[in-house]
Each structure stands twice: as structure tokens, then as C-alpha cells.
Specification:
Strand content: 5-15%
Shape: globular
Structural class: alpha+beta
Largest sheet: 3 strands, antiparallel
Helix content: 55-70%
Strand order of the largest sheet: 1-3-2
Number of strands: 3
Order of helices and strands: HEHHEE
Number of helices: 3
Radius of gyration: 14 Å
């Protein structure tokens, strides 16, 4: 596989992991960060996990308060 193919594969894996993390948080409503990390730690380093949380938070998919991750429901469109 070329480096471009590898890069694309890595990006797809990262997007899939973001979706999985968001789905787990959404399913539970709220989950302690450590509990979520325990579920995904075989697939992500701590640095990657923290980066994924930052992306989810910056895009207003979750909020983080005292290490509790809470899903932010979409507001209904008017």
C-alpha cells in the first residue's frame, strides 16, 4: 500500500473511532472519562484519546465537566 493509501486508511480508522466514542457516550447519556478510555484503550493511546475528546468537545458533540462526558443532543431545526 502506498503512503497515501496508508494515510487514508489511518484517517478512516480515526473517524470510525470518533463515531464509536460518540455513540458510546450518546448511548449512556453520560460516562466517566476513565470508563470510556477503558473501553477504547486497546485501540488508542492516551494522547489519541485526549485528542479525540477535544474534537468531540470542540464540535459540541459532548461536554466535559469534572471528567464526566455528556452527550449534547442536537437542537431541533426550526
Amino acid at each position: 500500500m502506498t503512503s497515501t493509501g496508508t494515510d487514508l486508511h489511518d484517517m478512516v480508522k480515526a473517524i470510525d473511532m470518533l463515531r464509536l466514542m460518540a455513540a458510546l457516550i450518546k448511548e449512556k447519556g453520560s460516562i466517566p472519562s476513565g470508563e470510556l478510555y477503558a473501553l477504547v484503550m486497546n485501540s488508542l493511546s492516551l494522547q489519541q484519546y485526549e485528542g479525540a475528546l477535544k474534537l468531540l468537545k470542540d464540535n459540541k458533540i459532548i461536554k466535559v465537566e469534572n471528567n464526566l462526558l455528556t452527550f449534547i443532543p442536537e437542537e431541533p431545526k426550526k
